[in-house]
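[step 3/7] inverse_fold.run input=structure_tokens len=350
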């Protein structure tokens, strides 16, 4: 009853007749050898999936969810790297978490622990000396201790408040020594629990983005048009009565590839692009010297509000019937207050 259902999806590699990981002394690696290694690792991971006590894992997850303090993780060596990574994942999901070095903890860092906190100790064997020395100190601070181990009936499990057993058939290493499968299942376990906590805490896409402001997802959900648009002196503006040839400097110097045609109150009348200039020159020849911007401008351009999301501006630029390289930014009275360009959006990381 406690194991994961048999419907856990499995990866499919070519059949391997041997359950053991072979030792190869050859100086090169062939395709069959590599595929057999992946197949063996798959088998060992499936052993973990099929034998994990889901009810034990549920109790562990609920304990982290109900914690009123910080969830600290600790470990030594490779397990320490995994513990630190899982802690960082939780932090990115808005869960108060941190990594506690077992060595540094015994030299002052234990002071960060309180009776409201949970301390999760990752160890394959459950007999790691540094963690065993840490346990009585953390207990004295009143923290709730959970060991996550892969060896049955270990010393760490006996002294912690709770133990989670991660089933491990063997390491992929041909000597069954290098921690490559055990750390893989530790990572899978920790990150899956993290996503369970994410769902239980009802973390929204917007909240997640706020925790990742430098990433593309974060920028797409946080940045508004007003954050990325050009303003005031950067705007390539002109009047509709201006001659086209008199506005060539304005057209080319602002780096927008267009002119924003406005009236005396800055209401948008239309746009005139460098593409419009080429088409007008081809069609009119020398007559272009007498043409005004207002005669040749597009009086029905796409526009966008400063409060719109920047990603919406990009979608609007790419919309049919043909893509554009810029959008005038107008207020509710159709007054020009800025311009957003495709180059500007890309430069902002969108």
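[step 3/7] decode complete -> sequence:
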């Amino acid at each position: 009853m406690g194991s994961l259902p048999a419907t856990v999806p499995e990866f499919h590699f070519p059949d391997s007749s041997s359950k053991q990981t072979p030792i190869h002394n050859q100086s090169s690696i062939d395709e069959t050898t590599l595929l057999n290694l992946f197949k063996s690792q798959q088998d060992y991971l499936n052993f973990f999936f099929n034998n994990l006590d889901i009810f034990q894992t549920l109790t562990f997850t609920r304990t982290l969810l109900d914690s009123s303090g910080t969830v600290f993780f600790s470990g030594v060596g490779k397990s320490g790297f995994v513990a630190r990574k899982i802690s960082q994942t939780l932090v990115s999901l808005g869960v108060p978490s941190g990594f506690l070095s077992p060595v540094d903890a015994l030299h002052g860092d234990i002071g960060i622990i309180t009776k409201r906190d949970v301390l999760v100790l990752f160890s394959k064997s459950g007999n790691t000396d540094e963690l065993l020395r840490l346990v009585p100190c953390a207990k004295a601070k009143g923290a709730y201790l959970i060991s996550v181990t892969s060896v049955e009936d270990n010393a760490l499990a006996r002294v912690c408040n709770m133990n989670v057993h991660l089933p491990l058939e063997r390491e992929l290493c041909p000597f069954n020594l290098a921690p490559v499968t055990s750390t893989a299942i530790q990572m899978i376990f920790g990150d899956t629990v993290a996503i369970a906590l994410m769902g239980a805490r009802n973390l929204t896409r917007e909240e997640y983005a706020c925790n990742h402001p430098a990433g593309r997802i974060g920028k797409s959900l946080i940045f508004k048009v007003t954050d990325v648009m050009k303003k005031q002196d950067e705007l390539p503006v002109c009047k509709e009565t201006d001659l086209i040839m008199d506005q060539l400097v304005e057209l080319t110097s602002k780096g927008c590839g267009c002119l924003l045609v406005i009236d005396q109150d800055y209401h948008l009348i239309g746009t005139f692009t460098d593409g419009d200039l080429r088409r007008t020159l081809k069609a009119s020849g020398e007559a272009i010297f007498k043409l005004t911007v207002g005669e040749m401008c597009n009086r029905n351009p796409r526009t966008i509000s400063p409060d719109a999301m920047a990603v919406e501006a990009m979608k609007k630029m790419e919309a049919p019937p043909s893509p554009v390289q810029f959008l005038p930014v107008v207020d509710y009275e159709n007054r020009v207050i800025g311009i957003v360009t495709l180059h500007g959006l890309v430069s902002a990381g969108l």
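[step 4/7] annotate
DSSP finds 15 helices and ten strands in the chain.
Confidence is low (pLDDT under 50) at residues 4-18.
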